[in-house]
C-alpha cells in the first residue's frame, strides 16, 4: 500500500468522499444535509491510500482544540474492505496528528456503522457525550482517545 499526505483538493480524495457521501445518504436519511454541512469542509491534513495504483481509502483530521484532533472522512472503498486499510489509515492519521502536537482524538460516527465503531473501540476509542454540533443528534455517537 502507498500512502500520501495531501489536502481535500486532491482528486482521489474527492472521488472517495463522493462515494462516502452517497453511502451515508442511506444511513443518515433525512439528516444527510446536516451531516454534509460539517463533512464537506476544506481539510489540510488528508491521507489517501493506494493499492496497486488504485485509490482504496482515505481519512483526515482537523484541529478541534490545542491538544485534540478531530478524525474526519474515514472511508474504505467497499471493494477493499476487511484488508486492514481503515486501521492503517487511522494509525497514520494519529501519528501525523501527534507530530503536529495533538495528544488526543475525537470523532463522530453513525451508530449504524458498527464495523467502524468496532475498529475505533479496538484501537482505544471510548464513547463520550456528543460534542459541538452533534449534541442532541440521535443518529450520532461520539468517541475519544487519549
Automatic annotation (TrEMBL):
Keywords: Transferase. It comes from the Bacteria. Residues 2-146 form the N-acetyltransferase domain. Signal peptide: none annotated. PROSITE patterns: GNAT. Pfam families: Acetyltransf_1. PANTHER family: GNAT FAMILY N-ACETYLTRANSFERASE, LD18367P. This is GNAT family N-acetyltransferase. It comes from Flavobacterium bernardetii. The lineage of its organism: Bacteria, Pseudomonadati, Bacteroidota, Flavobacteriia, Flavobacteriales.
